[in-house]
Amino acid sequence: MIATILLSFGVLFLAELGDKSQLMALTFSLRYRWWVVLAGISVASVAVNLIAAGVGHFLGTALPANAIAVVTALTLLVVGLWTLRDALGSAEEAEDAPPPSTRNAFLVVISAFMLAELGDRTMFAAAALASKNGWLAVWIGSTIGMVAAGGLAILVGKLAGKHLPERGIAFASGLLFLFFATKTVLDAFVSGLSGWGSTGLALLVPVVVGLGIGAWRFYRPRRDVAVPDQPANAVP
C-alpha cells in the first residue's frame, strides 16, 4: 500500500506541474488568502480523486471524455475571462471594491477546481492507477500529490506577487486559461491534429485576444484627462 501511495503521489505531482490547475492555484493566490486557496484545493482534490479512484477501480477508465472536455473548456474559458476582466479593471475600482468573503472565496476555489479537474489528464491518470492498484492507496497518494502541486503554485504566486505587477500576472494568466480552454476542445474533437498542431492553433486565441485588448487600450479615449474649467467671463 505504501508503494502505491508513493507511486500515485509521484505520478499526480508530476502531471500537475505546469498544468492548468497550477495556473488556477497561482491566479487564485493573487486574489484570495493563501490558506483559503489551499483549503479549497484540498477539498476539491479529495472529491475529484475519490471519483477517479472509484471509476478506475469499478469501471476501468470508461469516462465520457468528450462531454467532460466541453465542461472543462467552458470552466477554463469562464475563469480566463473573469481573470482578464479583473486585470483590465482600473486600480481605483480594485481599491474601492470590497474584499471577497472567506466563504465565497472558498466556494469559488472548490467549484473551479472540481470542474477543471473533471476529465483532466490527472484524473485519467488516477483512474488508470486505480484500475490496477488498490483504490484507497491511489486516492490517498493522488490527493496528496495534487495538493502538494497546488501548494507549490500558491507559494510561487505569493513570491511572484511581491516582485511582479499583480495585474500583469493576472493578464498573462487569463490568456493562458484561454489557451488551455481552446487546446482542450481541439484535443477532444479534432482527432487529426498532432500535439504540436493543436498547441499552435490554440496559441492563436490568446495571441489574437491579447493583441485586440492591447489595441483597444491604446486607441480608446482617455477618460482620466481632466479638461480645465473656463472662467465664467471667458470669451468663446
TrEMBL record:
Protein name, as recorded: GDT1 family protein
Family of this protein: Belongs to the GDT1 family.
Domain of life of the source: Bacteria
The species this protein was found in: Nocardia rhizosphaerihabitans
Keyword Metal-binding belongs to the record: no
Broad class of the protein's primary localization: membrane
Coiled-coil spans in chain: none
Topological relation to the membrane, as annotated: Multi-pass membrane protein
Subcellular location: Membrane
InterPro entries per UniProt: GDT1-like (IPR001727)
UniProt KW Kinase keyword: no
Transmembrane regions listed in the UniProt entry: 34-55, 67-85, 105-124, 136-157, 169-189, 201-219
Pfam families in the record: GDT1
Entry keyword set: Membrane, Transmembrane, Transmembrane helix
